[in-house]
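Researcher: Here's the sequence for the chain we discussed earlier.
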Amino acid sequence: MRIAVIGGGPGGLYFAALVKRQQPDHEVTVWERNAPGDTFGFGVVLSDETLGGIEDADPELYGELAAGFARWDDIDVHLPSGQVFTSGGHGFAATSRQRLLGLLQERCRAVGVRLRFQEEAPPAAELARTHDLVVAADGVRSRTRAAAAEVYRPQLDERHCRYIWLGTDLVFDAFQFHVLRTEHGVMQLHGYPYSDAGSTVIVEMREDVWRRAGLDRLDEHESVAACEKLFADALRGHALRGNDSRWIAFTTVRNATWSDGNTVLLGDAAHTAHFSIGSGTKLAMEDAVALAGALRGSASVPEALAAYEEERRPVVASTQRAAQASLEWFENLEQYLDQPGWQLAFNLLTRSRRITHDNLRLRDPGYVADAEARFNEAVAEAGTPPMFTPFRLRGLTLRNRVVVSPMDMYSAQDGLPNDFHLVHLGSRALGGAGLVMTEMVCVAPEGRITLGCTGLWSDEQQAAWARITDFVHERSGAAIGLQLGHSGRKGATKLMWEGMDEPLAPEQAWPLVGPSPLAYRPGAGQVPAELTHEQLAALKRQFAESARRGAEAGFDLLELHCAHGYLLSSFLSPLTNRREDEYGGPLEARLRWPLEVFDAVRKVWPADRPMTVRVSATDWAEGGNDTEEAVVIAAAFAAHGADAIDVSTGQVVAFEQPAFGRSYQTPYADAIRNRVRVPVIAVGAVSSWDDVNSLLLAGRADLVALGRPHLYDPAWTLHAAAEQSWSGPGAEWPIQYRAGSRRPQTGRRQ
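Model: Thanks. This is the structure I predict for it:
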């Protein structure tokens, strides 16, 4: 085979060396427009996983690399207060980028790869006509990708921070995070050693902070001097140096496909991941191993490229999700500065959701024990996991932080809850949760989603609910909450198993209403009638009357359902509310009627019982509500007396495009909690009890709601006995611990 590689960075060079070593009769040529000794940046961090792949694929190269690694275990978090928190057991290895490139160039020459430096590669389309395979490792600004954008269909997401890569002769003895509060805003320094002679330093801040500080007007020399002055304490008198260093905004690169005929993208040309969770070099070298392996194990180039992408895409997607969480955390760092220092440090360490409470405890049990002790202070015994600590809302004290998320059961008749609901909610309460929530209970027959939805508009329904609340109170230590709502334009649909969101037959349906005459699914179902002022007043009375019945039925908490595109939610979103009166237009006006309903309910709901509000924090649709609007909505309800905000997302419009993933909704709860300073309930693909503990200890949530998949799993049963018999970490969930740090800890942790 004739193989052309565009780009002589680590990914391109490593692939060339591997494929030539595996098949010496291949003709492999690398084009690199820079000189052999040119390199930009300083150090490269490689994970144990990457190093293991290199060792398996090329033991000789691994041996040469390992001989010069800088290794360390600790992460130091330096806060504006002067506090320093150290966590050990993380296991890093790094080397200089120049050394890595030199070793890879030598390896290529040794196995017979042709290296063409200071020479621009011909276009990929031209090379593809004369070569069997073209590997485009030409970086984040890939010309290959741009030239065939209609094939690769790239998505380029430029982020909100500016950062600059620098170097210093100070050799750090740990991974360093320094958070600096300035008159212009928050800045941060990321630093790590890469040899016994120097360290990499990255200075990062939001673009508005960068501009206010005047850094946008400085050249490289002036920028280096400014950063040196800003972070003089972190540098301990040492100097910074640049290397063609510029302030840049990170761009997340994604592509619909990585190949075009016999041309394939590798490394940053195909995908990028923020530097705060690891290097692009790491991903590029892992790509190289996978692509070389796919060529060796496939009968043809198309088969190899398909196998390469099939293997790498899930891994890259997972990395990019973690990187997205990490970069957004740093973009929003300022919202956490009022957290206690120990919590801010824990929050930083677990920001990507890859390192969790229990994973961190495996690395450094002493660090986590210290954080737990601070979290539990005055509320729980030492060693109690965060999820098992009590939480108080107004006059209600929940025995733990676990909430059974509302789940529509579609099993009522004429709105009346029955034995099914008694067994369902009663068993969840007996399972040990702190708070069990009902499904959305509708305030009127025409407010139901389906014929199987429950209601609270009659004496008979009130008595049926009282039977359930009595059972929960008599037989468990759980509290039970009433979620109150109205379906709005999403009503009169079939039962879920008969066709979710499909409209009922006309003879079974009832007229729908909404803020505006907009159908949930245009062309499929009713168009709701726009509510008049008289109808709005009547609906408000129905909400208040159902709330009064709920209080008499014995519910401990009431949640007003303002999410998922139901009636109150549809007033909040600009995609569903097109009114031209005082209830439509800007967000302040769209909030007006939902707040009026809240006030009417709060007025009749007992003063000592808490009220929460469930919101969709993003519509997952262009032009809809997103984080900034969610913060305003949450603040408005909190100002009117909401005791907590239950933070969900989406289901407002049928054309939404959610970004699913692990704990994918929790960043919205995080933003509301730490910007509005109101307790929040987090929900959404929380996949383990470890995630629950991580969210709570990091201060991203106060309560965590779990849905059906977890609560029907015996591993998730939270028996009261477990709480009472807990005698420290590992008592109920046995864990093997190992000491984390190679560095003395005395006096470091504060």
